[in-house]
Amino acid sequence: MSNYNVSNTTVNVLLGWIEQDIVAIPEIQRPFVWKSSKVRDLLDSLYKDYPVGYIITWQNPDARLKDGTVSHGKRILIDGQQRITALMAAISNKEVVDKDYKKKPINIAFNPMEEKFEVENPAIRKDKKWIPNIAEVFKPEFSVYKFVNNFCEINVGTNPDIISNVIQKLIQIKNSSIGIIELAHTLDIEKVTEIFIRINSAGVNLSQADFAMSKISVNNTYDGPLIRKSIDYFSHLIKSPSIYENIRTNDMEFANSDNFNKIKWAKDYNTNIYEPNYSDVLRVAFTFKFLRGPISNLVSLLSGRDFETREYKEEIIEQSFNSLNDGVLKFVDETNFKRFIMILKSAGIIHKKLIRSQNALNFAYSLFLLLREKGINGSEINLIVRKWLVVSILTERYSGSPESMFDYDIKRFAAHADPKEYVKDVEAGELSDAYWENILPTNLNTSVTSSPYFNLFVMAQIYYKDHAFLSKSITVQQLIEERGDVHHIFPKKYLQKNGYNNRGQYNQIANYVYAEQVVNLTIRDMAPEIYMKIVRKQISESEINIGDINNLDQFKLNLEMNCIPVSILEMDYSAYNDFLHERRHLMANKIKSFYQSL
């Protein structure tokens, strides 16, 4: 049997299928991403009888019910959603939802004299040569005869026959042919998933998470749309609290649900540390509730697949939707989310720029939720999640094949009676003395400021409440919170003047330190031995010139906090490479101390 069947239908029939719910648009309430000009171009192509691509649908695999009968699911639109939504907006006058969850019309205007489409604007509304909104032409009560007479009356000199033919041609858009590729309902979920993620929609590669969201959206029996909206709205609300009123006003049905009450706290909460998108919410909820990693597994389970018998069963669909809903509600729970953020802060993560691995954050939250569900003591949860997060950053555990590692780790955490033991097992295997003494210092040999290893060093400084370079009053944390920048210990211009012209040389992260801008401006392009003499002089004479340190003990402590060797006092450019080598080992030791004290 073929994997798919190709046929043709008309715009009118396809829109009728959508209205009758024969073909389900998975996420009709999600933001419409096309620009209005692209809707205009689609109408122009249909008018000129140009091909506009295929719509791809797939019918759910037949699920066996408890009474032995077979359930035939509706067809899902898995590619072509933007085109269909555009047609519904332009022809059927349906409003779309923009990125701020405001409902808005997309009115496409048409000039019968020039046979030209345009997005409606104030100038067009005043110009009698234009039909401001072509949706009027497609209404059942529209009369071509009345329109032509009225148009020719207003636009003197126009030919009624020509205008009549043009309007008839415009109306024929609804009879334009659209190709339908229908994927066989007998296809394995894995094959459908592979087909789905290879399709491009508006230039963006679709993901398995998109497919899962589509599966969720079309299942009204088990509150799929409610689950999907909970995921989607929360992920937008946590980033843009201002959309709260738009959701409340434009989706009254959801606004009256318990799920809305469980996410609306986010409108009053501001975090710049963990801002999950819908894919993150879905991944975390799935990983901790199902103890699995691959999102393709979720698609299978939502379709009712029994992994042992390879059959599709309705009870698996029901169980999967119930578990997913519970996982999503635990993700968006105010107490859970805020406790997780506090754990991140307690590990020195006070800003999202300090942790670039969204996968590490996602697994850490999955782990947090799993441990809570297992009834682990709160302080133990804090310890385990903190240490595991740092381990996963140190080893870049989720950078290669995150789904397989998610699957491996979550199963083992779930199986261990004492999850701390699994952390210790990984620690023993991954963080040996060789790692701390050789591998980590080597990893610190980079010029990339977003390096996870430099971020770990900064996290350690925040954790220990370290002061900025040559400061006794301003902390590293305060500089980061105020968007302070890193500066060069060996000034960049000084190094360039002395032969270090390669960015990879002077921008080494072992040459970086958080310092107040006024300190950096005062140092300018001095050699370390020069500006350190000024600092020592101000300590002995109590005359402040660089920073605000006026005590020898404070000075020594500040160098120690920032992992700067005392030998810096006598260094010029000739000792730069020795300095980098020594400081990398000091930074590695600080990171080690930080990890072990968590």
From TrEMBL:
GmrSD restriction endonucleases N-terminal domain residues are: 21-215
What superkingdom heads the lineage? Bacteria
Which InterPro entries does this chain map to?
A: GmrSD_N
Protein name, UniProt field:
GmrSD restriction endonucleases N-terminal domain-containing protein
Q: Which species is listed as the source?
A: Oceanobacillus zhaokaii
Q: What is the lineage of its organism?
A: Bacteria, Bacillati, Bacillota, Bacilli, Bacillales
